[in-house]
Specification:
single chain; Serine Threonine Protein Phosphatase 5, Tetratricopeptide repeat; 19 helices
């Protein structure tokens, strides 16, 4: 939804273009304003006009890449980002865009790591690029390298919630509970958010600190009532505490919410409610349908406590 500020920016840029119709930089700014308003086709038209006026406008290629990325056209996005890099290899945004396409849309983690690494050659202290490289390493199973990248990002920007969040996921995967708890608490010092509270609930449950788990999961549900994973985990802890009525109520709500999601979401719900057989059955379907990549499943917090299950590992390796 377009904000009043963005609408005013668009109108101001259009006035400027009317007075300076050959200024390609104004079209670039207009393209990004429309992109901010999620008016992607109009944004792309503005970037194309900028390139018609100045084919060497690297920022216009980068903007086009961002539009193509949002439209789901990975190949067009890659082409645009590579054009931007060829014209000006010193700017980091197209490297980040390139890496995100490889990481999120194509699952080519080696190429993603290369893209982020190339950008960091010019901007070694960019926290977002460092965190993205760490996230890529986590998907590759290079967990110590991932931790190093996240810690570098956090050292540069202590409130970098993306780096802290992903660091928490890696510590959870590795079973380093104290470090994971510390990372989540650092996130919560920045902002009260449902996700770190849900993860804390998982770990406190694992440690047998059930009242602490309840406190975190109840707060997570309050912050995000539609989170069936948090509700499912809460029902499990209530059951352990003998609060069966509360457990039944949470499970019923969570199950209804999960049923609206795809097989992967339902597998996550089954995992957090200790229904291993159902979780594995649904996960197999989700992987077959391409709903998720094995690299994410491996570090997904909902499956953190079934890592030792041979059938789970077999699904990830296809064996």
């Amino acid at each position: 939804m377009i904000t009043e500020e963005t609408q005013e920016k668009i109108l101001s840029l259009k006035d400027a273009i009317a007075n300076h119709p050959a200024d390609s930089a104004l079209y670039v700014d207009l393209g990004f304003a429309h992109f901010e308003a999620e008016q992607f086709e109009v944004a792309l038209a503005a970037f194309r006009q900028a390139l018609a006026l100045n084919p060497a406008a690297a920022a216009a290629h980068n903007g086009s890449g961002r539009v193509y990325e949002r439209l789901g056209d990975a190949q067009a996005a890659l082409g645009a980002y590579n054009e931007a890099i060829a014209l000006d290899p010193t700017k980091i945004p197209p490297y980040i865009g390139l890496g995100i396409i490889y990481l999120d849309q194509l699952g080519n983690y080696e190429a993603a790591a290369t893209a982020f690494g190339n950008g960091l050659m010019y901007h070694p202290d960019d926290p977002f690029a460092l965190a993205l490289l760490g996230n890529t390493y986590a998907h590759m199973g290079r967990f110590e390298d991932a931790i190093q990248m996240f810690q570098r990002a956090i050292h540069l920007e202590p409130t970098h919630d993306f780096a802290l969040s992903n660091l928490s996921l890696v510590y959870l995967h590795l079973g380093q509970w104290a470090k994971m708890i510390d990372s989540c608490q650092r996130e919560l010092a920045i902002a009260d958010d449902a996700e770190p509270r849900r993860l804390l609930g998982y770990v406190y449950n694992r440690l047998g600190q059930y009242e602490d788990a309840v406190a975190q999961l109840e707060r997570s549900v309050a912050l995000n009532p539609a989170d069936y994973e948090a509700r499912g985990a809460l029902s499990r802890v209530y059951r352990k505490l003998g609060r069966d009525s509360a457990a039944d109520a949470q499970y019923t709500q969570a199950n209804a919410l999960a049923a609206q999601d795809n097989e992967y979401g339902q597998a996550c719900f089954a995992a957090v409610t200790d229904d291993l057989e159902k979780a594995l059955t649904l996960l197999a379907i989700a992987l077959t349908k391409g709903q998720v990549r094995p690299a994410w499943v491996r570090i997904d917090p909902e499956f953190a406590f079934i890592q030792a299950e041979a059938r789970f590992q077999a699904l990830l390796t296809g064996s």
